[in-house]
Amino acid sequence: MRTDTAKSFYLKDYRAPDYLARTVDLRFVLHPEQSEVTATVSYERRKGADGDAPLVLDGDGLELVSASLDGKPLAGDRYSATPDRFTLASPPQRFTLKTVTRVNPGANTALSGLYLSGGNYCTQCEAEGFRRITYFTDRPDVMAVYSVRLEADAKQTPLLLSNGNPGRKGKLAGGRHFAEWHDPHPKPSYLFALVAGDLGSIHRAYVTSEGRKVKLGIHVQKGKENQAGYAMDALVRSMRWDEEVFGCAYDLDVFNIVAVPDFNMGAMENKGLNIFNDKYVLASPETATDTDYARIEGIVAHEYFHNWTGNRITCRDWFQLCLKEGLTVYRDQEFSADMRSRAVKRIEDVSLLRAHQFPEDAGPLAHPVRPDRYREINNFYTATVYEKGAELVRMIATLLGPDVFMKGMRRYLSKHDGEAATIEQFIACFEAVSKRDLSRFFLWYTQAGTPVLHVATHYDRSRKTFAVDIEQSQAPTPGQARKKPLHMPLAVGLVGSVSKQDLKAEKVTGAEDQGGIFELSQRRQKITFHGIDEKPVLSINRGFSAPVEIDYRHLDRELGLLAAHDSDLFMRWQSFRLFASRQIFAAMRSLARRKKPVWKKEFLDAAVKIAENGDLEPAFRAMALTLPSETELARLLGRNINPDAIYKARRALSNAVGEQLEPLRETITETLDLPDRFEPSGADAGKRELANRLLAYGVHADSETAEAALVEKFRAATNMTDREFAFRLILQEMQGTPAAEDAVTRFHERYRDDPIVLDKWFAAQAAVSGRGAVATCRKLVADDAFNWTNPNRVRSVIGTFSSGNPTGFNRADGAGYRFIIDAIRKLDAINPQVAARLLTAFRSWRMLEPERRKQAQSALRRLKKGRKLSRDSSEILDRMLS
Ligand code: ARG
Ligand code: ZN
C-alpha cells in the first residue's frame, strides 16, 4: 500500500518519459499465494532525454527476487528496489532489463493487479494496477509489444488467456501446462490482462468487413454458459455497427470476454481480452431484468468500442481520461439508440446525467471533464469524465453536423492511430475538417460546473416578433472562482399557443438558424424570431442539445401544452416532469402548513393523456409517468433538504395520479398486448414497464384490486423484470405485513444459489424507505451470505442504502450516516477503490437542512479523525470537507 497519500499530480507537470519500452516479455508461474512474474523488457532512452537520467520504474507493494541487465545479474550498487519503486542508475541508451517479482493473488482484496476471483486468476490494471504485478513504466504513453507465457496447474486452470493472438501451448512436468500469447499492437500497460482458470465457454465465428476471420469467445463460471448468449449477440452487433458507422474493424484473430464475480467497476477493455463484472454478461429471462439486458448490451458495446477509441488510440496521461471514456460512452449511446428507441435512449441518458453528474458538478467533488490535478486517479472515473464527456462529443457532432463530425472522427482515427493522444489533438481534428475555431468550445473540458442559461422572452404582437434573451452563468467550483462563457449548440423551437404546432419564423436575427439550432458563445445573447403570428410557447434545449440548466419560468399551462404537443419527444418528457416537480414542491409547502395538498387538474389530466396515448411508445409513456426521484427533487430544491418532506409530498402526488389512472389500468394494460414469451427487445421492455408503472400507481392509490394483482404478479411472474418489480413494491408498500415477509422468504429460497440475483434480494430490502432501514441494513450485513470482499454484494446493501434510500440514509438522528461511515472504515482496509466510491454518497451533504447537515458533518469528521485511510478515501473525504 502506498503511504504517500497527500501528494497531488498536476497536468501542467507532464513530461515525456525518459525511457520507452519497446517489447515486454512476461512469464507468469501462477500459484495462489506465490506467483512469480518474470518481466524481460527492452528499454530505449527517448530522443531528447537527459543522457544520465536514471530508469525509474513504478511498483506497488512488490517484492523483488532478482534483477539482471542485458543478461548479467545487476550489482547491488547499480539499482535500488523498494516495494513501490525500482531505480536503475545510468543505464545505457538501449538495454534489456529482466526482473523477477513475487506476488500473492490470494491475498489481493483490492482487486487491482493480479487476484483470484471465484477461484480463477484474473487481472485489472487500469489505471495503475500493472505496477502491482511487476516493476514498469506504468503510464499510458509508454506503449510496447507484449509477449506472455502463462504456466499453471493443468487441472485447476485448464484455460490460459492473455492479450493478442494465441501461440504455442503444451504440457509441463508436475501436472502443469503453459500457453503463450502475442499481441502485435503496441499498448500501454493498463491494457495488459491475463486470465487463468476453469471456466465454461461459448464461441462464435465472425468475419470482419476487411475479411479477417475472428474467433469470439465468452468465458463464464461453469454451468452458466447458457446465460452468455445475449452478451455474444450484443458483441456481434457491436462489431458490425462499428464497421458500418465508424469504419472501425477488429484487428486480431481472437476476441475473448471473461466474466468474473469480483470486480471493482463494470468491465475492462484489455486488448483482445475484455474482463467483465459477471453481472454485465450473464442473463436469462429468469435472472435478468430488461434493464439488465440493456446494460449488458451497452457495456459489451462500450468495451468493444474501446478497441479503437482507447486501445489503438490511447491517452497520453490520465488527465486525458475523457479522451477515451467520453468518446466511447458517446459511441455506446449511439449504438444503443440504433438498437432500440432513439428518443427513449436520449431521455435515459439525460436522466442518468442529471442524477449523477449534475450533483457531482454542484458539490465539493466538482471537477472539469479534463481534470488538472488528482491525488488518486481511480477517483476520477466519474460521471463528469464519462457522461459529461460524452455530452461534449455530442455537442461537437451537433455543432458540425453529422457529416463533418464523421470526417473529423475519421481524421482522428487515422492520424493518431498507434499514439497516446491528448484532448487538444482530438479537437484539432475537428477544427481541421470544419475550418472552425473551437477554442471557446474547449473551455467545456477545463471549466467545471453546470452552466445555467437564464432566459427571458418577449412577444410583440404588433411587430410579430418573439425575442429570447439568454444569459449564461456558472457558479464557482472548487479551485475555479470565475468562468468564461461557453460555446454551445442550443436547439430552440416555438410552439403556437393556439395552433399547438411548431411555428416557422420568416427570419431570425441575433443568431444563425441552422435548422432550429442556434450557437451561443457570449455571456449574453438575444435571438429574435420574426413573423410570429400567434403567441408562442418557448421550447428550449430540445433533445438536450447542451448539458445546461435552463432558468425560465414557464406557466403551468405552457408546460401542459408542451407536454402534450411539442414535436420533440424529449421536451414532452421534460415539460411533464417539470410540471410534476412543481406539484410536489407545492405539496411540500402545503404539508409544512399541515394542509392537504391540492393538485392542478391540468396536471392530472396530462398524466391521463400520456397514459392513454397509444401513438406514443409504451417505454416513453412509462418514463414520462415516472415521477422525478427523491434525489432529483432534492437537487432541484438545492438547499435546506429534508428528505422526509420530499418523500411524503412525492408519495402524495403518486397517490393522486394513481386515483386517476387506476380506473383505466386494466384497459390500457390490455391494449399493450403483453407478450407471453420473454424477448429482451426495447419494445417489449417498454410494454412491461408501462404495465408495471400503472400497477404501482394502483397500489399507491390503495386499490385493493391492484394490490391483489401485485401479489399475483410476484407469484406468477415468468421473468425477472416482473418479479423484481413486484418484489420491491411489495416490500415498500406492504412493509411489516405477512405478505412482505413471505415475499422475502420466497425470493430467497428461489435464488439463494445465484449471487447476481441474490444481490437483488439484498438491494430490494436495503431500498425500503423509512426509519427502519438502518436496522434492516444491519441485519443484512450480518447475513451469512453477506461478504465484504465482493463489491457487488457490498454495493447491493451499502450502495443501495446510501445512494438509493434517501429517507433511510438521511435519518434525522444521523444513524444512517454513522452506519455508512462505519462500513466505509471497514471496507477501506479491504478495497480502497470501492470504499472511496461509496463515500461519495455524502457529496451533497451541504445542501441538507441544518440538523442533518450537522449530523453528516460530524460523521465525516469522525472518519477523518480515526485510523489513517487509503489515498483513495482520504482524497474524497478531504475534498468533501474542504
Ligand atoms: N476503462 C474501464 C471502462 O470504462 C473502466 C475501468 C476503470 N477501473 C478502475 N479501477 N479505475 O470501461
Ligand atoms: Zn470505458
Give a quick precis of the structure.
This protein has 26 helices and 32 strands.
**Helix residue percentage:** 40-55%
Quick one: how many beta strands?
32
Q: Provide the CATH topology of the domain at 17-277.
A: Immunoglobulin-like
| Termini gap | 25 Å
- Order of strands, widest sheet: 6-5-9-3-2-12-15-14
Bound molecules: arginine, zinc ion
Counting DSSP H or I runs of 4 or more residues, the number of helices is 26
Q: What is the radius of gyration computed over CA atoms, rounded to a whole number of angstroms? A: 28 Å
For the sheet with most strands, the description reads:
8 strands, mixed
Shape: globular
Oligomer class = single chain
Mean pLDDT metric: 98
CATH architecture classification name of the domain at 17-277: Sandwich
Structural class: alpha+beta
Q: What percent strand? A: 15-25%
CATH homologous superfamily heading of the domain at 17-277 = tricorn interacting facor f3 domain
Query: Are there runs of 5+ residues with pLDDT below 50, and where?
Result: none
